[in-house]
Amino acid sequence: MGEVYPLNYVAEDELRTGAVVEIVSTIMRETGQNVNPRNIRVINWARSLYDVATYPNTAIFSVARTPERDKKYKWVGPVAELNIGLIAKKADNIIIENEQDVGKYKIGIVRGSAPEHILISKYGMKASQLNQLKDDLTQFKMLDADRVDLITQADTSASSGLQQAGLDPGLFEMVYVLQHVDLYIAFNPKTDDMLIEKIQKALLSLKEKLANGVSRYDEIMNLYYGENRISIRSY
């Protein structure tokens, strides 16, 4: 798996945990495929995607299902979703109404990240227009110090990142969604189709609303998110 807090991450005791870890463990168990969280490996994305495409009886999550990847794997999902967007200080009152507005601001991105690719490929920005930074923590500190106007983050993890940087998430907001992403489990392409169908049905069952209007899926997500998701400005 790749680390996407609070969907899947490594806890202090080295145990793989998170909302999607629990969801995947649950649906696999309900189809007779027990998954021990301690047997889940965390390796870099390029290696993970190669291994799952190459070796039978392997899977990776949480993965964006793109046209380039679609035929390389078999898919179950979505197991989660997130928004990749631009984070600003609320006090700056930055308003971005369309794609053209994005290029007006000084944006801090993590070098080589998915948001950098999105800004270049979808929004026509050049790498030279972006402030390339080494990691998420640097992004948050640069934004707090007003050295950039905006940074790129996922709404799922921005709040925890701000807290780790010693900042109050309530003072920040996502002012523009660059891309909505549905996340899946990607299985080796030789995985039996009947097993894929069983796992997909187990996921759909997990998402069915109970008498109280909340599904078991919702309960798991709420347990891990709490107040963690950063607010997205609505226009």
UniProtKB/TrEMBL annotation:
The uppermost taxa in this organism's lineage are: Bacteria, Pseudomonadati, Thermodesulfobacteriota, Desulfovibrionia, Desulfovibrionales
Species annotation = Pseudodesulfovibrio nedwellii
Recorded hits in Gene3D superfamilies, A to Z, give: Periplasmic binding protein-like II (3.40.190.10)
* Domain of life (superkingdom): Bacteria
Q: Where does the record place the Solute-binding protein family 3/N-terminal domain?
A: 3-209
Q: What is this protein called?
A: Amino acid ABC transporter substrate-binding protein
UniProt cross-references to Pfam families, sorted A to Z: SBP_bac_3 (PF00497)
